[in-house]
Please model this.
Amino acid sequence: MSAVIAELNALVLGLFIITTIAMTVARQIGACMQLFIVQSLLLAASAFLLGASPVSWHLIALGCVTLASKVVVIPWVIRALVPGEVHQRRELSQTIDVPAALLISLGLTLIGYAFALHLMRSAPSLSPGNLAMGIAGLLVGLFLLAVRIEAVPQLLGILAMENGAFLAGIAVAPDFPLIAELAIAFDVPLLAFIVALLARTAYRRMGTTEVGGLSALRERVH
Amino acid sequence: MILLIPLFPLAAALWCAVPRSNRAAPFVTFAASVVTLGLSLAALGAVRAVSEIVVVRNWIALDALAGLLLVLIALVYATAALFSWGYLSDEEHGRRVRLYHANFNLFAFSMLCIPLLSEIGLVWIFVELTTLLSVLLVSYALNAEALEAAWKYMVLTLLGATIAVLGILLLFWALHITGSTDFTWDGLRAAAPRMPYPLLGAAFALILVGYGAKVGFVPLHTWLPDAHSQAPSPVCAMLSGIETSAVLYVILRLRNVFASDAHLHVGTWFVTAGLVSVIVAALLILQTHDYKRLFAFSTVEHMGIMLTAAGFLTPIGDVAVLWQLVAHAVSKSFCFYAAGATLLATGTREIAGVRGLLGTSRVAAGAMLLGGLAIGGAPGFAAFLSELAIFKAGLLAHMYLAIGLLAIFIVVAFFGLLRHITHMVGGDPESRRRRLPAPCLWALGIGAIPVVLLGVWLPRGLGDTLLSAARVLGA
Amino acid sequence: MAQSIALNLAQIAFVLLLSPLFAGILARCKELVQSKRGPSIFQPYRDLRKLFSKDERVPAGSTWIFRTAPYVIFIVPLTITLLIPVLTNFPLFMAFAGDMLAAGFIFAVSGLFFTLAAIDGENTYGAMGASRTRMVGFLAEPVIIIALFTVSFVANSTIPYIVQQHWVHPIANFFAPSHILLLIAFFMIILAETGKIPVDNPSGHFELAMVDESKALEFSGRSAALVKYGGYMKFTVLAVIFLNVLTTPWGLASSGSPAAVLLAAIAVSLKIVALVLAVVVVESTYAKLRLFRIAEFLGAAFVVSVTAMVTDLLHL
Model:
């Protein structure tokens, strides 16, 4: 891998984590979705860069599948299924205020970094940064899932986590047999479809998509 | 022949998806499930002769352990299909019932694929598919509670799946370093001793947590009682009886990969995590107010028992675990049919709201009692025998504290279960007598056969299969 | 030595003469984007001339601070001009007298005087603006510090002339994530520090919503001119640091010959105009944030700068 490609990939990784963190504080569902699209684009870019030299068709295919499914199909599915007024709503409620959320995300990024360092001491990988930022992306996605109570951002949280896992995956397991492509091509759009369907039903039946706030089901204390 | 097994549910799903087949959908589903059960039994018979059938090397194969799970899945699929037939015989909602059956078949398809595959990445995909294809079944009632339950179920299990996929990627990385490319159960087992410790450790933690969320180990169990109380009863039977078991099967098969490194203390982690689940579930059983949640917590408890026993890392412990797996699948699915029958008869899920079930519906009351005794592990039922075997395995492994705690909390859970069930069965009936639909009665009748039979008679074939399946686990 | 002094004077002349022009271009372009004609790009010069020729009034209760502050505000950007590479890419004789951190401190002096003078002016809006500016300043501080730490990690120096050379030798350094992320963070800081749109609306006339402008309300005549002029130059100096030190250290004179310096002046002016256009885009596409959202804007800048540092420590 040439130095310029390595630096470009590192840049993509930095932007990836910033996009992920921005998703945790974005105030509109539409913005959150655009950030997710950017994040997926960056994942694909990283796959292309790592697959460029030496040429790895596996990674290039992965990048193409990511583009097709996460940049095109998933946003389309979500927009088609979830009613428009949900997307236009501003000022999403959030359980943690923005500066605190930013700081926690930063902390998680550092944890991911430390964890990746621990792993990398034992084994060589194609691009050490991918592992660190992938794990950090996974953790920040988890945090996003925890602080958001709207359906669509929660879905995007799951997908962001998955992006993080695959960002780590393309560096440590570049010749992973088929699973990544299959998962991204079929599983993930199906996931988006089902979640969006559920969100739509929830919106129709309850007039809200704040699914995280639901708490009818709980063990009652006598 | 093995490849045909999942094709039948798939074909049935396609048939049910066709708009004109509203009335035929339940029948087609049931027929497909019966054929699937027959084929699965035949496959298990064939496996016993040759120890492993390899269809596509490194991708599709069937051994005794997988065969056992396959038969259990097919069995519960068949009885649940029959029960659905009666449970959802709502003429007004013909279209929804048809779509339910299409989804139900797809769900069964995704589960049947898990034992058939030996490539770990593909197994992960199908584990995720089981979630995706059952979410809409859980939300079938379409009220606020059902949607909330489906949402929690989906978010927590998909979260688990995403954590697990990182573990799997790390495992692949570790495998790659050793120079091997067989990403299968056996390939991993062979390469495990040469894998670097930090990678193996991280993969172990991620996979245990990730798949553990899907099995329902405490503290990631919160989705389980919600989903099980809101889903239609036949879906609960599938979720509880075999979906959790199928994911536990994946954890069990990966156990020895991690156990090859003594520094990881896999046994200790399994026993600890298992005991925590058992204890918490037993206490939750005591205070629950909803009889479907009652059985859901009992599932958490049983999963905990199995994980604890798997942590003994002895062959006899493994036999006991598998025996418990069988007992749990047949009894728990039966319990949920009983719960479904009770719900049909009384119209409420509240334990406090049900009195005098014996007067309302003799069948539901009998089934409730039988199911409660069987799943609680009363003497004379399969769960009792398997739990005894687990105690014996624990004694042999010198795990005295673990089996002491296990014994106490199994008893606590048993009395908790029976207290609630006797409350419902006894007393003066509050509603008038109601007849259950015929397919429900048939499902209860057929479901009761293995529950009663396995407690008093262990068929030779099943015994042999358990032994050879435990050898596959190979502690 | 003589040449060095001449070059320094040329740098000061550059900042002094062209700063109002850049402000004029910015104002004109914003109006054009809004489909208006807008004032001529030389309007700031006319404003300054008018203000310089007017009488000055001073609030009755004010002290010496009020009277000296405009001079401090005017002098400080010119002082910093001595420390940074405005036109040449080789160090001049003041280059090692202070690094980028020192530039930050010197700016803080002018900020302090401005704040005190605003309070001293006995205008309620002045005190309000002062407290708001301080808030923005406090929040921007950690970002600047982290950004400078990152610079020193990457280039092993905070002297602008050395930092400048690091990013382009070899060229791969230019694409380093720490570099690009630093640029984003620094751009956000420029917007905040010079009172541009997501943080403050420089062309607003509503005193209650003002952050920066309301501090200057009490100044009149020559003082007002100096304060305005100082503001123009502050933007130019920050832009020079951003462009010549951090982003695009190209187009600077590598020898002291008048022709090279003239060429450099043109190149640097073009770069600043490009930056001005970027600011126009930001100012026209975003709305001013509510006061308490400013904390989030600068929090985002902080995240970006910390990520820049982390990616550098990772040796990605």
User: Anything to note?
Assistant: The first helix of chain C runs from residue 2 to 33. The mean pLDDT of chain C is 87. Residues 2-313 of chain C form one domain. Chain C has one domain: 2-313.
